[in-house]
Amino acid sequence: MAAIDDLASEFARLPGIGRKTALRLTYYLLKRPPEEIRRLARALEVVADRIRSCSRCGNLTESDPCSFCTNPRRDPSVICVVEEASDIAAIERTGEYHGLYHVLSGRLSPLDGIGPAELNIASLLERVRNGGGVREVILATNPSVEGEATAVYLQKLIQPLGVRVTRLAR
Ligand code: ZN
Fold first, then answer.
1. CA distance 80 to 131
2. How far does the centroid of ligand 1 lie from the alpha carbon of residue 61, in Å?
3. How far is the C-alpha of 59 from the C-alpha of 104, rounded, in Å?
4. What is the pLDDT of residue 130?
5. Cis ω on the peptide bond leading into residue 143 (within 30° of 0)?
């Protein structure tokens, strides 16, 4: 049936979901009460309509600027650079960081065609240059080969601006 195939195809586009799992999820949902399926559909609609990128830091947010950028208790002199918005939660859980964030939306990966222009690097440099007294940039990209390469690249760009650059050990 087309409707069942359509839904299974959508699930199969998600990371880590093969065709078999996609069909299992689809048939699981078909056994649930219609109201439960509609609730899932509504939750998807709400994130599609309301979530966007913060125009300052690139974090995913319902309100722009995001709650980090507008929080007067966060220290604006420190910016922690992460690959994805989802990385922020892990750092926040430590409870030890009180500065601001900048989300690159990826990491340098020449083989995948991802160069500096594909990442939020220009906006990071803009913040460091004119961002009201940034003193330190903490590079918290992942400890993968590409994450390290991205950190080295950023360090070379930011250090000449007279800002302290540190690498977050994870
Ligand atoms: Zn923000």
1. 14
2. 8
3. 9
4. 81
5. no
